[in-house]
Amino acid sequence: MKKYIFLLFFFSCSLFIGYAYGFDIKGLQPVAPYGVFSTFSADSLPKGKYALGVGVEKSRQPDFFRYVFQYAHGINNRIEFITTVPYVYRWENVKSGAEDIALGVKHRFVDETKYAPSVAYMVNASIPSGKEVFSTDGRAGAGIILSKRVGPVSGHANIFYEKVGSAKLEDETSFAAGFDFSAAHNFKMLAEIYGRKSHYSDSIDVLEGRFGYRFMTTDYLYTTIGIGTDFKNRSPEYRLMLSITAVLPVEKRSIRKVYEEK
């Protein structure tokens, strides 16, 4: 446990080291533990459960901090509502500001079997609420999510298409494949490849690998740390990520007492 605390402290300190270059829009993000970094899982929060998350991201080349606030709610055991509110701080010479608020509904319509993955679809939209330089004037889209568990490894694959609100910008297509390996009951290793044709390009301009860890700090609290690097344009050169998520309400465990007769 002391080792994990030291790693978390070291990572937190490293968030304040960096340099400068361009910008990307965050959009809707999965809420831990039902996803990797940007790769969604077909699994979702049980009915009546909700999750609150907060994260910070430091990118180098381009240089900026991004704070991410998340909320998710299990409408039933198959349908989940998700929202993401990103806020950009200190990007080049541009003043800080919010990105568009992203909303989405995920519905798992096929459950996992011995040989087949679970399948879900998601519809999402962004409210044109962000600062102009950090906004696409809203967007709407949909995607397919597949998940499969083999032993201690869970794999997930996503593909999304989004039509942006501004006529000056291109529509977006993104894909992601992620894995989480249960190294211990309260510890997972994460890996992800994420690609995107963004709103300012006609071809794939982001191909990023991300690696990290997720700790189950308590029965309801998840801490995720990671690092990502772009394989295509080296923009961003790297990004560091830290997030903490609470899944509520906390389940009360019943304690059974056994008495021996003398």
How does this structure look, described?
With 262 residues, the protein is mainly beta. It has a single domain (2-246), classed as Beta Barrel (Porin). The protein contains one helix and 13 strands; from the N terminus they run αβββββββββββββ. The longest helix is centred in the N-terminal third of the chain and has 13 residues, at 2-14.
Termini gap: 40 Å
Strand content: over 45%
Give me the secondary-structure category: mainly beta
The residue ranges in which pLDDT falls below 50 over 5 or more consecutive positions are 1-22
Count of discrete structural domains: 1
CATH H level, superfamily name: monomeric porin ompg
CATH top level assignment = Mainly Beta
The CATH architecture assignment turns out to be Beta Barrel
What would the principal axes of the Cα set say about the shape?
A: globular
In what order do the strands lie side by side in the largest sheet? 1-2-3-5-6-7-8-9-10-11-12-13
DSSP E strands, number: 13
